[in-house]
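EI: anyone free to look at a 427-residue chain?
SC: sure, send it
EI:
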Amino acid sequence: MTTPDTPETAQTLGLQAKQASALMAKAPAASRNAALRGLAKLLRANVDALQVDNARDLERAVAAGLAAPMVDRLKLSPKVLETCAQGCEQLAAMADIIGEITALRQQPSGIRVGQMRVPIGVFGMIFESRPNVTIEAASLSIKSGNACILRGGSEAIESNKALARLVQRALLDSGLPAHAVQLVQTTDRAVVGELITMPQYVDVIIPRGGKGLIERISRDAKVPVIKHLDGNCHTYVDDPSDLAMAVSVADNAKTSKYSPCNATESLLVARGVAAEFLPLIGAIYAAKGVEMRCDPEALALLQACPEKMVLQPASEADWYEEYLAPIISIKVVAGVDEAIAHINQYSSHHTDAILTRDHMHAQQFLREVDSASVMVNTSTRFADGFEYGLGAEIGISTDKFHARGPVGIEGLTSLKYVVLGAGEVRR
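SC: here you go
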């Protein structure tokens, strides 16, 4: 229910962000980079204090019965905070692309036409669970010369508030407006409804969370939306493939961490290698407590193994599922053509990988799989802005327009045409 001050709160946030965005767009790169380096120092200096605030969120989440993978996403461990700090430093070290003019071409009329990269302006970020997203979004916003309004999930409110305070300190210490990064301080969902209907202040909305959140934002928003949908990622083991490598990668892609959206949720195996490969990976999954939901052919091969495994027949719904848990669907396919067809039908078009020794199969997979990230001979867990060298990411876009895949600096900018002349007039 909308509280009396909700529209006023949203209007204030929007106006302050719009004013700050004008200052950020013209702020020198040196100031923006200084803010990022300062934020990295503040994160490292406040690890203990941040974990105190984070502990409040974790205690409340456990008491509320939040699922284990969701609780895991809430944790601000020293390792997570160090990764955030490194992301800020990586961004600060990257070349500044704001104001860069590209593709400048002389026209027959004498004018020269090119494109300049500019900030989007103000983006609203609505996200769930992971408090480190506060730093990722803020740091990308600073580097790209934007202003942002961040609304995290109620389950991470204390952690997000503590992180946002550090961001604003870093901005002020560098001579930049504190309102360039604002966190919505209330857990009232009505504020989200206001933010997504304010095109006079907000230029784009970026939801990052479950399907329900993203579908609601996409349906109700009156500003453009960059969607970050679920991660039903696939790993396909081809015939031929290096089976030792395939076992290692398929293990990492699924079990290194269950909660991220880039974890493999479905394993496809070519019929020619299935009898040899499936018992190998099945034994590893069994030892780690992974439940395997299989098509009839994979089920028969795994049931013949001596190891005790948790096996279930796969339903049609399993091929679409993002488990975020120690569960994986497994299917035997005839070869690369069937694997590609299956992925394009069932995947969420996030990240899909082929493990193969056949160069032509690899090239076909890269061309024909319709996903934001397509990989050869490596783990889907690499689908991440930090791992891609973007410094950080604001999410993984499964859209096809403007931004696709991990959204870094370029995804938060736009191009405008610039025309340079010397007195030419059109005849």
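EI: The chain has 14 helices and 16 strands.
SC: 👍
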